[in-house]
Design goal:
With about 375 residues, this protein is an alpha/beta fold. It is built from nine helices and 20 strands. Strands 4-3-6-1-2-5 form a six-stranded antiparallel sheet, covered by helices on one side. Strands 11-10-9-12-13 form a five-stranded parallel sheet, sandwiched between helices. It is globular.
């Protein structure tokens, strides 16, 4: 039913006039709106409503799987994922994570999963009873469901594909024990690209060698040998098939090696006169101190004097009296052990410190030494 308007009603068809009949809008409100629009672009960067927190590079993931991957039960593989199932930062073979453990320790572990799987990271850790405590904390203190903070991924051991960043025609992979971790993704990449490659995988005993099941798919391209059965490998065994004309490792070869320092040093010396062979390697242990001189470190907080032997790092000496001092890679890469030097002259033996850091008196206890008899550190 249609309804007719009341004869005395008035329909609102326009905004009411100003109280005094001059303005249809509040002049003060209008002026404030105009000024806000003019000044906001300049004011906003100076006074944000919600300051953006500084990015410290730390990501918190969750431990979603844990698997023992060596028969001696001393190597455990951990799989990490984002709690919300989101994709993770991209990485390439040879990359590693910085694991920030609940104790405050930071340790570096190579990624050994599939770079194409953007939802998980996988690392593997060997228990080292007489180490710095990081591996024991991982084995005994981390459980499925626990949150884990990381930094990275970062890559100091990249794989250069022959024809794309490398002049080599073939690749030889050499892994010893837990040194298999950065090599695993490299094998998958070499296989996927159809490269000419082979590998030797060594260990103390067959029980100590992790990921053997995963390597069976590569067949006889991989040779597994143990020190217990065959003794220490020779350089010829490590480098694989030789050139029939010269009896030496063929030229145009790229070698990727990860393992203990003595093996790496022997290999480096062996290939010193072979510029036609590329050598790429990563250490899991600190390098030996070469041409070192003894000196004394004074800890500023206590005045304690710590002697450093000629073949010893400052870090190793300091840890004897200050076990909680932070460190990670022990090779001058990560910067965890960086500390300010208060007096003395440094002998920097690293590539990680920038010129401003050196000017500010920073010192890497794992590789830097004193250029003299003593120095004082802010410890």
């Amino acid at each position: 039913m249609n309804q007719r308007a009341h004869p005395h009603s008035t329909e609102m068809t326009a905004p009411p006039p100003h109280l005094y009949g001059r303005w249809r809008h509040d002049p003060f409100l209008t002026m404030g709106t105009v000024m806000a629009k003019m000044w906001w672009p300049f004011w906003r960067p100076l006074a944000p409503l919600h300051p953006t927190p500084a990015d410290d590079g730390v990501t918190t993931l969750q431990l979603v799987d844990r698997e023992v991957v060596a028969a001696d039960e001393n190597v455990v593989a951990l799989t990490l994922a984002a709690p919300d199932g989101d994709i993770l930062a991209r990485w390439h073979p040879g990359a590693h994570l910085d694991l920030l453990l609940p104790s405050g320790r930071m340790r570096e572990y190579s990624l050994c999963g599939d770079p194409a799987d953007r939802h998980i990271y996988r690392i593997a850790v060997r228990r080292i009873p007489d180490g710095g405590g990081g591996s024991i904390e991982v084995h005994d203190g981390l459980h499925v469901g626990d949150p884990i903070s990381i930094k990275g991924p970062r890559n100091a051991f990249p794989l250069a594909i022959p024809g794309h960043g490398s002049h080599a025609r073939s690749i030889r992979f050499i892994a010893a024990g837990i040194g298999i971790t950065p090599i695993l993704p490299m094998l998958a990449a070499a296989d996927r690209f159809g490269l000419d490659w082979s590998m030797i995988y060594t260990g103390r005993t067959i029980e100590s060698i992790p990921f053997q099941d995963e390597l069976t798919r590569y067949g006889d391209r991989i040779t597994i040998r143990t020190d217990a059965e065959h003794g220490l490998p020779s350089m010829d065994e490590l480098l694989g098939p030789v050139d029939p004309e010269t009896g030496r490792a063929p030229g145009g070869l790229a070698v990727y090696c990860c393992g203990p320092v003595p093996m790496l040093e022997r290999l480096r010396r062996h290939l010193a006169d072979r510029p036609d062979i590329e050598l790429h390697y990563e250490r899991f242990s600190p390098p030996p101190v070469l041409d070192g001189r003894p000196f004394t470190v004074t800890l500023a907080s206590t005045g304690q004097e710590v002697p450093v032997a000629a073949d010893e790092t400052a870090l190793a000496a300091i840890r004897k009296v200050l076990p909680s001092v932070p460190y990670s890679c022990q090779q001058g890469f990560c910067g965890t052990c960086k500390v300010r030097m208060l007096s003395g002259a440094p002998d920097h033996r690293d590539n990680i410190l920038t010129e401003p850091e050196r000017t500010q008196g920073m010192f890497l206890t794992c590789v830097s030494r004193a250029n003299g008899d003593r120095l004082t550190l802010d410890l």
